[in-house]
Amino acid sequence: MDRRRFRIATVAVALAGAVAVWLVSTTLFPYHSLNHDEGVYLQQAAMLLEGKLFLQPPVEGVFQPWFFVESEAGLYPKYNPVPAGMFALGELLGGYRLALPAIAAGILAGVTGVVSEVFDRRTGLLAAVFVLASPLYLLDTATFLPYAPTALLNLGFAYGYLRADRTGDRRWAAAAGAAIGLAFFARPYTAVLFATPFVAHALWTLARDWRTALPRQAMTAILGLAGVTLTLGYNATVTGSPLTFPYEAFAPLDGLGFGHRELLNHRIEYTPELALEANGQVLAAFTGRWIAGGILGAGLALAGLAVAVRREWSPRTAILAALGVSVPVGNLYFWGNYNLLGDLDAAGDGLIASLGPYYHFDLLVPTAAFAAVAALAAFDVLRDALDTHLDRRAAFTSLLAVALVGTLVLGGITTNQAAAPIERNADVTDTYEQAYAPFEPAPPPNAVVLTPTPYGPWLTHPFQALRNDPGYDGRTVYAMDDRPFAVAEAFPDRDLYRFGFRGVWDPLGDSPEAARLQRVQERSGEAVTLNASVGLPERITSATVTVATDAGTTHYVASETDDTLRFRVMIADGTLRVAGPVEAVGEGPLEIDGREDVDVTVFADDGVGGFEYRLSLPVETGDGTVRVLAPHVEYCLDARACGGAATYVPEASPDGVFVRTDLRVTNSTQDDT
Predict the structure, then answer these.
(1) If DSSP states are collapsed to H, E and C, what string results for 304-345?
(2) Which of 178-192, 529-543, 548-562, 608-622 is modeled with the greatest confidence?
(3) Residue 194 and residue 227: Cα distance in Å, rounded?
């Protein structure tokens, strides 16, 4: 194949990959994936665009994003900034998502170039097609995760190194060093595993002819070590020590090695035996589901390796083959592959079922390369046989038919294997679409949104789409719903909203089932009254109202059980009272002082169990003034479901079930009859 046609074909394959990844990204992952690290990298990308390495939240304790570390200088992410910087380049061109097809195209061009350097141009092009057809490439490159960006840098290193090895050009050697230096800055261990076979080759060239090899190898090494120095400098800037990586500062036992491993509340004893079991399952998934052709594609790669050993073996070929060793063997030492699987005894569990074995992303390169070698070797043998026994036209037709059948078989296997993760991700996206519906077509302007915390005290976990600008000055600001008064005070000129969803956060289980964005009123004065009306369906036989403060609890029995129960919660003079068609049982008014959440529960009894309304009312009293925020409202079919997962959503509530609330500033001496 001449150079011009090769370049055109390379561009065509790269563009096909860019289009495919763009479509997957926009249709399958419009709200991002199950891996909440995407929000971390996008938050970091936004920080880099504003020249910030740290976040300085306006209120302590309610603005910490997922996987960010607290320090005296501010909050910083546990990940190194190179992948985020690559995503930020997309934003400069019009949107973060534009970076993904560019990375996708670069990977395919890189595979073509690397494999062409080792074998020939047609093998390089076919290897790129194998990568393009791999579900691992299509799904992971369509997300804001670091594995594809780091693979692009590794491929840039590999191409520069091989080109310099062939031509002696020090410029390519310098490019190789810069690429692997950036790859190390992005994901140090991933870069080391990828570079190991090349380092071995470099040592071999030095031993063979050091005078010729030393200038270019030194150039690569110097720029590669510059990347290491940059990494250590970044460590010193954010963590205070060049040898302490940000991920280590976040969780000191979340690193390489065997023994006790721990990340937040997740801990295990990671033994070599467990490593072998976990990584065996990961490699089985890689070969069976996540490469083009599945197990048949893996068989082609092994056959291609055998062909290369017999026909085209060279030190450069050995580099590619050694990648098939360094990547999986090195990953034994990393407990992340165990975490990727979820429950080892449950098939289809863990993030691997949705996004594949992404720690082995670089293994696509040797797999595709040797699969291409085998496919082309078989093609050549068949072509020679047909040319011997048939005329040219019949031979061409037969060869075309065999190639088409082979492509359909490989494509059919790949499609079948990719169906499950695609369907899994599509189901998650359908659930996300319901959850984020209140923010469509755009979040409320000039607003602060209080968000729930189903996974603990984090932003963007799980709500990756709800991210703050680094200066907390964007169209919408997001804060945890833990200190609402402090948040309201920090943003006095913004409207306050509360985001809630109905059901537990389990996108794989089609939950949450509905969501709500509630405007939060604030009222302050000498006395504030909450007027509440709740629906009592016809089957309800009795109703009770329970009010709980830090000082105690009071119960009230409704004297009427018509279709609506109306009552008032009045706060004044350091006390709280309930008025309306209800009668107190036991103690009278409750004392209230300072900031607290008042829980008002209405139990509607139908004789067989009933249901509850729960109103959680933020209240602040002091210096003769009362401040109250509109309550978070829940409708609980089961009392045990209350506590955040049963948010009242008007559009999703059954007939006869409703809640209406209104806050009014009143006079403390106003009649409460």
Answers:
(1) HHHHHHHHHCCHHHHHHHHHHHHHHHHHCCECHHHHHHCCCC
(2) 178-192
(3) 15
- Which among 366, 362, 352, 367 is positioned nearest to 278, based on CA atoms? 352
Strands 611-622 and 632-636: antiparallel
Q: Give the alpha-carbon dihedral of 417, 418, 420, 424, to 10 degrees.
A: 160
Distances (CA, A) of 237 to 71, 250, 390, 483: 11, 15, 71, 31
* Separation of CA 73 from chain center: 26
For tokens 């409708």, what's the residue?
635
Which residues, 6+ apart, have CB-to-CB distance to 532 below 8 Å? Answer: 566, 567, 568, 569, 600, 615, 659, 660, 661
The rounded Cα 564 to chain-centroid distance in angstroms is 45
Q: Please state the φ and ψ torsions of residue 420, each to the nearest 5 degrees.
A: -65, -50
The answer to whether residues 581 and 570 touch, using CB atoms and an 8 Å cutoff, is no
- CB burial of 414-448 (b: ≥16 within 10 Å; e: otherwise) equals beebbeebbebbeebbebbebbbebbeeebbeebb
Tell me: pLDDT of 343 over 80.
Answer: no
- How far apart, in whole angstroms, are the C-alpha atoms of residue 584 and residue 546? 10
Q: Tell me the mean pLDDT in the region 581-595.
A: 81
Bridge partners, 620 (sequence order): 595, 627
Q: In terms of DSSP bridges, do strands 476-480 and 447-451 run parallel, antiparallel, or are they unpaired?
A: parallel
Supply the pTM of this predicted model.
0.91
**Position 673 confidence tier, pLDDT thresholds 50, 70, 90:** very low
How many angstroms separate the CA atoms of 545 and 655, rounded?
Answer: 21
Work out the angle at residue 603's Cα, subtended by the Cα atoms of residues 599 and 608, and round it to the nearest 5 degrees: 150
